[in-house]
Backbone:
């Protein structure tokens, strides 16, 4: 029944495994199916809700329902669970005209037939929901998925990976990661604690920054070091629009966007520019200034470019993460943002990594800090797998509204999304399978449990200051125009590298905003502070 979690199982025939599960499920009295009210029965907790044994076994993703260990009198709350986006309350499709409950002594075979009918009704209902989306909507959605699948697969090109390895200062990255590890992890060996990263060879540094001694996989500290290094004046920089006219050389920023064109030059075509923004100079009237939006990650890392907006940042950083040895996914928020997810060998889970913001593992920053009303978020792996990871980025209090937004405003039902993702995965080339791909079912099960549990997580579980701040990449006016300055702390490009941000009230409508800022050399300076007006509009301008 769980169309989001197990679409293949939901749409399959009534298998022997399902038959056995149903036979076991109907041996208890489900309050919703049998008594339509409270019943003395085994209880299973799903977050702060309680469901019966049948729903815990059939409707809830494996591992999410916790057995309470004793009989209790309660009414099954599977409907409330389903409202959170977990499973489908298929048992509720049983519809009797009379309210007489089933008697306990009724034959199991008869009950099984009725439950099997409810199961098939639920399947048919989900099929109708999947088909309710217009064909044009489904086609556009499928085309969008295929476009990002193709982009993600280009990150696996051997030539692109080899080139990327040649442009990253690996020793600097590993020295930074090594210093962090020494500061955050207690050293038992006094000899190793007294040694500096400068004393280690390249091979020793690489080994010291692995996720574990028995693995060659890089540590989380390496990812943090890459994020810090990547966005900087020395390498990749935010480039909102051209500031210098290609004709007269005017550099006063008097360029006005006039139109979008397709690629017209060899460089634009070779860099897979999806579109080219054309700007007109207010001084000389020329429209020769072009901003190609390259989609080829290698081109983005060429010395002549290394700049862009969030699309270029996520594309280039995903390639760099793969060159560093991380498993990485390209992540699409269909309301207009992209970033990367990094597999953490240490934590055995996917970590959010936004190279525009230099943030790692802050998935709620968009909803809580930027004020985004997320609709759907998809992660693209290197084997054509596309995973709906919306639950990771939407606070639990907003998830039901998120499902409504995607259905009502985008015309995408849960079943339609599940079917499209399954269709994309079926095009996978079986010959390209490797140990990482082969281990997908185990990772998937763990991730599904994580995503399901997140619907019941405390919204304050990620209450750090940087999760509450508005967008920082881009100038303040642009951020405000996008409505992404909703955070507790002021955003803007001046705040590209910072930590320990806080607001201290001075009274009379004024506060002191303090933060540690990072210099170009990568060192943290003393506290920097600015007095800001408590009014949000004044705070933005400050």
Residues:
């Amino acid at each position: 029944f769980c169309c989001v979690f197990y679409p293949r199982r939901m749409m399959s025939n009534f298998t022997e495994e399902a038959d056995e599960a149903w036979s076991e499920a109907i041996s208890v009295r489900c309050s919703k199916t049998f008594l339509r009210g409270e019943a003395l029965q085994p209880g299973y907790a799903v977050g702060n809700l309680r469901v019966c044994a049948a729903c815990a076994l059939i409707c809830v993703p494996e591992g999410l329902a916790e057995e309470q260990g004793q009989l209790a009198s309660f009414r099954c709350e599977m409907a409330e669970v389903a409202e959170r986006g977990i499973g489908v309350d298929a048992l509720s499709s049983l519809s009797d005209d009379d309210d007489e409950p089933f008697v306990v002594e009724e034959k199991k075979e008869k009950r099984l037939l009725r439950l099997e009918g409810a199961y098939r009704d639920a399947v048919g209902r989900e099929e109708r929901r999947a088909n309710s989306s217009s064909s044009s909507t489904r086609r556009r959605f499928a085309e969008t998925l295929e476009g990002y699948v193709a982009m993600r697969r280009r990150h696996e090109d051997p030539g692109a990976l080899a080139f990327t390895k040649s442009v990253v200062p690996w020793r600097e990255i590993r020295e930074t990661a090594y210093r962090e590890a020494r500061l955050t992890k207690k050293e038992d060996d006094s000899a190793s604690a007294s040694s500096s990263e400068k004393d280690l060879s390249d091979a020793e540094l690489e080994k010291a920054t692995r996720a574990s001694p028995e693995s060659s996989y890089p540590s989380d500290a390496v990812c943090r070091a890459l994020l810090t290094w990547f966005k900087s004046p020395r390498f990749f920089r935010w480039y909102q629009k051209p500031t210098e006219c290609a004709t007269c050389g005017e550099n006063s920023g008097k360029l006005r966007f006039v139109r979008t064109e397709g690629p017209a030059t060899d460089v634009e075509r070779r860099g897979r520019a999806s579109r080219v923004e054309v700007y007109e100079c207010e001084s000389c009237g020329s429209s020769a200034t072009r901003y190609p939006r390259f989609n080829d990650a290698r081109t983005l890392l060429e010395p002549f470019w290394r700049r862009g907006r969030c699309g270029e940042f996520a594309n280039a950083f995903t390639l760099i993460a793969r060159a560093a040895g991380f498993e990485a996914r390209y992540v699409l928020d269909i309301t207009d943002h992209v970033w990367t997810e990094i597999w953490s060998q240490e934590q055995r889970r996917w970590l959010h990594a936004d190279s525009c913001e230099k943030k790692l593992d802050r998935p709620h920053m968009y909803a809580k800090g930027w004020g985004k009303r997320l609709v759907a978020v998809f992660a693209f792996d290197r084997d054509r797998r596309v995973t709906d990871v919306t639950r990771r980025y939407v606070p639990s209090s907003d998830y039901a509204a998120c499902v409504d937004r995607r259905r009502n405003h985008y015309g995408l039902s849960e079943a339609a999304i599940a079917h499209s993702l399954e269709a994309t995965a079926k095009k996978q080339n079986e010959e390209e399978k490797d140990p990482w791909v082969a281990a997908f079912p185990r990772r998937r099960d763990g991730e599904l449990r994580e995503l399901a549990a997140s619907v019941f997580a405390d919204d304050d579980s990620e209450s750090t200051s940087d999760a509450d701040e508005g967008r920082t990449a881009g100038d303040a006016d642009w951020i405000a125009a996008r409505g992404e300055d909703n955070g507790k702390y002021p955003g803007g490009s001046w705040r590209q590298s910072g930590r320990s941000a806080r607001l201290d009230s001075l009274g009379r409508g004024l506060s002191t905003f303090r933060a540690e800022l990072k210099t170009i050399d990568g060192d943290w300076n003393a506290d920097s502070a600015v007095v800001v007006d408590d009014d949000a509009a004044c705070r933005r301008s400050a």
In short: The radius of gyration is 27 Å.
